[in-house]
Amino acid sequence: MTSTDASTKTSLTGIKPTDTPHLGNYLGAIRPALQLAKSFKSFYFIADYHAVTTLRDPIALQKNVYDVAATWLACGLDPKEIVFFRQSDVLEVFELAWILSCLVATGQLERGHAYKDAIAKGVEHPNAGIFYYPVLMAADILLYDTHVVPVGKDQKQHIEVCRDLAARFNHVYGEGVLVVPEAHISEDAPLVPGLDGEKMSKSRGNSIPLFASSKELRKVVMKITTGSETLEEPKVAEGTTIYELTKQLTPSIAAEMAKKLAAGNYGWGHAKQDFFEALDAELGPKREVYESFRADEEALDRILAEGAERARHVARATMHRVREAIGIARPIGTMRSTVSLKRSDLPV
Ligand code: TRP
Question: CATH number for the 211-294 domain, one of 1.10.240.10, 3.90.180.10, 1.10.230.10, 3.90.870.30?
């Protein structure tokens, strides 16, 4: 695909507001998605109705939505370029989800990872939202004529369901009504390790916050687990948490670090200090933008509402095609009188 092709294509992704984003989200999702958006027409949205499948604390949900919005904006999302909105602001998504649910076999949903995981964890009857999750996600994607969906490996199955649904819809109701999307998964994307070397995640308590003060950030970085060699000993960088994190943040600084470690007389404390400085240099300016957005929820609401307006525009056009394809279409403004219209009175 050439870059000129790409700019006319749409990329879309959803961000579930279940937590405040951390460094793992930044390196693994935010930074690459913003990079990809440079060559696509992009729709990035906050998947608040997906969060409701597991998050039942209204105050936390609202806070997370603002945290996520401010984080992406601080990391460089330009809302003029990228259509940035709340999932819940475009109600058409539920209509499409219903239509799609009538095309999916329950067996396919029973094989869903999230549903199976919930059962494996001992939840005898997971809520129906968890079961239905992939259908809403398919609607999210298909509503905006999406070509590529940048996601992590864990979402691969969801994209497969979405592709199946789009293909089935087109097969049943007419080729070309829905765009069949592709996942954009960097297979070789390394996991971002947390303080203890395991995958960074909020629930594991090993995450590095994105927008803590310099002082706090340094304190957290100093907690990263390292080897216990003496200062003088030469050390191997490869495979250590501090080196992996530095490599994912800034490869050139990591290369330097590897050389210094191999040469000896450079301790793990020095490596942590170098990583901290690189991290603080990257996050410092973003931290200020974050703070100013976070202090102005009205501004965030306004940005998201403008995004929703643009998103709705596309959503309505898709739903018009979809309704027409399935036989639910009617002339605009005649919702109640349609019954008396003869078939030949309807627009073709
Ligand atoms: N399921 C995704 C996640 O957990 C979030 C999501 C919801 C999404 N709708 C989407 C991602 C549509 C991509 C496209 O991360």
Answer: 1.10.240.10
